Amino acid sequence: VTTALVTGATGFVGRQALCRLAEAGVEVHGVTRRSSAPGLHAPGVEWHQADLLQPGQAERLIGRIRPSHLLHAAWCVEHGRFWNDPANIDWLAASCRLLRLFAEAGGRRFLGVGTCAEYAPQDAPCDERDSPLAPVSLYGVAKHAFHLALAAFAGTTGLSHAWARLFFLVGPHEKSQRLVPDVALHLLRGEAVPCSSGRQVRDAGAALARLLLSPVEGAVNIARGNAVPISMLACRLGEIAGQPQLVRLGARPNRPGEPLVQAARVDRLRDEVGFAPRYELDEMLADALDWWRAQSPE
Amino acid sequence: VTTALVTGATGFVGRQALCRLAEAGVEVHGVTRRSSAPGLHAPGVEWHQADLLQPGQAERLIGRIRPSHLLHAAWCVEHGRFWNDPANIDWLAASCRLLRLFAEAGGRRFLGVGTCAEYAPQDAPCDERDSPLAPVSLYGVAKHAFHLALAAFAGTTGLSHAWARLFFLVGPHEKSQRLVPDVALHLLRGEAVPCSSGRQVRDAGAALARLLLSPVEGAVNIARGNAVPISMLACRLGEIAGQPQLVRLGARPNRPGEPLVQAARVDRLRDEVGFAPRYELDEMLADALDWWRAQSPE
Questions:
Q1: Using a CB-CB distance cutoff of 8 angstroms, which residues of chain A are in contact with residue B100?
Q2: Alpha-carbon distance A147 to A152, whole Å?
Q3: Of the candidate ranges A140-144, B86-90, B193-197, the one whose mean pLDDT is the lowest
Q4: Which residues is B132 bridged to in the sheet?
Q5: Is B141 near chain A, with CB under 8 Å?
Q6: What pLDDT, on a 0 to 100 scale, did the predictor assign at position A178?
Q7: Are A119 and A134 in contact (CB under 8 A)?
Q8: Where are the alpha helices (DSSP H) in B175-265?
Q9: pLDDT of res. B249
Q10: What is the gyration radius of the CA atoms in chain A, in angstroms?
Q11: Burial code of B86-110, b = ≥16 C-beta within 10 A, e = fewer?
């Protein structure tokens, strides 16, 4: 029997994966620090409240659920701060503890959430099999360090594991300072949109759920096959909203330390995990715009 | 004022460094899991009992001492088991917590203890500045992962840090299953000595103490400048003990996963830290033999 625990389950990525896992007929447990969060009552999902940074809480959680599968999506993700947040070190420590507890309680498969920021800056699309890893941010380094520890631990204990490197994402429930909602909200208010210059996006929940339930081992890029620079993304949003003239590229400087362009190879995701995107980009952007329109007090 | 805390202070390396720090006039605090250990009462050293793997103990220790300098020598080191001991993951987590607590309490300089096993296997002497890192054991990976996190954290917070990569060691107080005492005890009993084939050695405490009190940043190899294969080491021990015929090279298989030969470049240690070995190898081996002779019930 498959019992899946999802950490960071109220986050942008965890929330989506949770629903896909429930749809797949798996017994799903979600954990969040919050006592309440909107949309928590997905069918087939049992919720738990725990702060994985506090001593003893992971022990109680794992002891109670004894999951066979773990999707570890929790990490510090405060917008604009997480790149060099000292809390990245706390999450590295907490993730190591969670890994040990999970394995000791009979856990069989651990899926960690990594980042495109683990790769060295490069023009070629990042390939899990041979692109050099050289993270520059504390976020990228801490994620990379945990992946090294996870892979070595799995190698010596027989634990099954995978490591999903997320490229930049777009979808409903994003934090409102993120790119797409930021652009969408400006457009909905009829305001000009100041933009920095380059990123790539993808809706990842379904890919994570599929990867967790697959036997694929090691690092897997989670990205759209086609690179989408922010310029194109913001312009498409402007066009979909009927106000392309409001999108002003280059009006906002790039954030220091933030990687500019990272494109991904998705051979492993497509061929080994067997995942193909369900949504076209325009459709995703239109959905996001609709979602934010529904949230906006007008 | 310099207040130095040494973790793993009853271990082979920590114990030596502790005495050198006390001799240097620094206020020294040693921490050990044990309630008692032989030779703990070094002059100028205050002892603390704490288990850094238990929640809350590092908090209490750092809060009480508020050290300006930290030599973190504690790790899992059970002979023959530590290479792939799952506890390596616990020590990675505990080291991250210690780092955060130290920095938050105003700590200024963190010296971590790494290992030659972080380097990729290679014939050339390992160089901190350009030799590739590719640990194969869980021990090497966990140490490497912590070094990455330490360096990135230091880079974003302004903490001063160094990382001492220890090559194989010889000296008094070694665990009795280790190479030199093993050979020495066999020789003292007049028994034949089964040996595997290659390693390198050095007495490291004084180098660690000097590195902690220096401003040198980053990874530094702690090794003798000249590579000493185990064959030569064991043979010299046999000769010093007057029983060279008892040393039988090749009679014991090499331990699986254990790196065979790692030689080091010591330019950084010599030129930047300004450290030169005080003892010649023969002198060290004779001292070790004398020390073990004194310990042996004859």
A1: 86, 89-90, 93
A2: 9
A3: B193-197
A4: none
A5: yes
A6: 54
A7: yes
A8: 179-188, 205-212, 230-240
A9: 61
A10: 19
A11: bbbbbbbbbbbbbbbbbbebebbbb
Task: Return d(Cα A279, Cα B195) in angstroms, integer.
Answer: 63
Structure token pair of residue A191: 């305001």
Mean pLDDT, all residues of chain A? 81
Q: Does residue B134 sit in helix, strand or coil?
A: coil
Ordered DSSP codes for A163-232: EEEE-----TT--TTSHHHHHHHHHHTT--EEE-S-------HHHHHHHHHS---EEEEES-SS---HHH
DSSP A96-113: HHHHHHHHHTT--EEEEE
What's the residue count for chain A?
298
State the best of A156, A159, A161 to mutate against chain B, taking most chain B CBs within 10 Å: A156
Of B97, B145, B155, the CB nearest to A149: B145
Is A97:A55 a contact under the CB 8 Å cutoff?
no
Query: In chain A, positions 64-103, which contact chain B (CB-CB < 8 Å)?
Result: 84, 86, 88-90, 92-94, 96-97, 99-100, 103
- d(C-alpha B152, C-alpha B166), whole Å: 21
What local confidence, expressed as pLDDT, does residue A154 receive?
Answer: 98
Q: How far apart are CA B166 and CA A248, in angstroms?
A: 55
B93/A89 touch (CB, cutoff 8 Å), yes or no = no
Residue entry with tokens 């389950």: A9
**Which residue type occupies B193?**
V
DSSP designation for B264? B
Contact assignment for B138 to A153 by CB distance below 8 Å? yes
CA distance B91 to A155: 18
Nearest CA-CA distance, residue A37 and chain B, Å: 29
Residue B162's SS3 state is: strand
Residue B80 confidence (pLDDT): 73
Q: What is the pLDDT of residue B116?
A: 87
User: Hey, are the CB atoms on A152 and B146 less than 8 Å from each other?
Assistant: no
> Per residue, what are the HEC states of B22-87?
HHCCCEEEEEECCCCCCCCCCCCEEEEECCCCCCCHHHHHHHHHCCCEEEECCCCCCCCCHHHCCH
Inform me whether the pLDDT recorded for B12 exceeds 50.
yes
- State the virtual CA torsion across B44, B49, B54, B56 in degrees, nearest 10: -70
Sequence letter at residue A124: A
What is the value of ipTM here, to two decimals? 0.78
CA nearest to B201, candidates B122, B272, B124, B288: B288
